[in-house]
DNA sequence: CGTGTCTGCCC
DNA sequence: ATTCTGC
DNA sequence: GCAGAATGGGCAGACACG
């Protein structure tokens, strides 16, 4: 942290023009996520560089890496960077005169090196920590760090943030970098929790709201005043080109009074002939670039669950219940094209249980997908809980107002489909939470059964034992 | 022009 | 996406 | 409790190679 702060200070002081690139490098990216620019440097390249720098055959490195001498990401990049630095010092200690700054020096290094590597020193979050802490130190105020983080979560664009910080300072950041239609905000993510009763305990006495968590692709749809539509993924990638049908659907199904919006939803593969939801696998086979409406083979249904912006006004400061009301008022539902996520708001355990059971029951209408062992590996995660109180720190920051004064919470019950093959092994896992819930119940039943008949079952049916406890195998 | 490799992103 | 670990 | 790092399956797209 200190090192990062010092580095940033030094850069600001010595070579301010390098600040933006440095910021991007520290964030493991080279542009805002929605602009779709990538490094294109992965493990294989890094290993090549390591092999090159240390004079070891690439095959051997790869062999080692597969077996006992696993070099992890951080070590790989470090090794590569050190190796390159060593080579650089030996062979090219002199810099051409036109090199003015450390960043240019790095560029030069990359140019003279056959393979280049960008050491991933830290993740974007760490960077934000360092950057905001540095600011906090600079202005002698802890609030500064949070301001920067908040700004980034609603406006993830370092170009603007860095220049705004340099020109107008941190205190004006909420004004200079605020939510903008067309720029994706950081999505609200679900958090796992152990079981229904845990959730009820946690939110004791508080009215909670529960909804299905559909298994598809998260999408944040921006509809601009001029009718332009942009769709962003969970990681804020621009995926508009993959879903021309979704663009058409939201344009058609928004109500006439709606001139702009940001819709948070799950895009789920849907078979309109069979009237059923398809597994995620189907969705992922869709082409991703420049898809034409006539090219589409896998249709999708939009399951809408939140509205973040409406008719020129942000709704980020409203609580979820209000946002939902706006959502319901702003779109026409059309079965198999755009539906609102099934939800209830209640503090009654039985009612919640009912919704949960319904979600479990929904598996009947859903297709089978291929085994996903990792989903069944014995975790006790049952529900996904998404609560503004719990999650404001990692989702929408508290400061932009998602902590609800009236304590209304989003409580996402995992719902949806998984299914059993005829033989009885778990074949699909559409909604992880439900599958796991079911699994946990099975296990509980099984262990009860076993403890009840420990004595008779002396010869130990090992197959049944393993099969029942680890559906993944 | 197919095939295999690599990368990044979806979950 | 899940899981583990260290703070 | 939270953040970070490591982990898995599967896919399209970009690219190099023969």
Descriptive overview:
The protein is α+β, with helices and mostly antiparallel strands and 473 residues long. It has 3 domains: 1-176, DNA ligase, ATP-dependent, N-terminal domain (DNA ligase i, domain 1, Orthogonal Bundle), CATH 1.10.3260.10; 191-385, DNA ligase/mRNA capping enzyme (D-amino Acid Aminotransferase, Chain A, domain 1), CATH 3.30.470.30; 388-449, no CATH class. The chain has helices spanning 2-14, 19-26, 43-54, 58-66, 73-91, 102-112, 124-139, 143-154, 158-168, 173-176, 196-202, 244-253, 280-284, 320-330, 349-361, 388-391, 432-452, 462-469, and strands at 191-193, 208-212, 217-223, 229-232, 261-271, 276-277, 299-310, 313-314, 338-340, 343-346, 383-385, 409-413. Strands 3, 4, 5, 6, 7, 8 and 9 form a 7-stranded mixed sheet that branches. The protein has a 3-stranded mixed sheet with strand order 10-2-12, covered by helices on one side. It has a two-stranded antiparallel sheet with strand order 1-11. A hairpin with a 5-residue loop joins strand 3 and strand 4 (229-232). The longest helix is centred in the C-terminal third of the chain and has 21 residues, at 432-452. The chain is globular, with a radius of gyration of 26 Å. The two termini are 44 Å apart. It binds 3 DNA strands through residues 38-45, 72-74, 123, 125-126, 129, 192, 215-218, 233-235, 237, 280-281, 283-289, 370-375, 377, 379, 381, 393-394, 432.
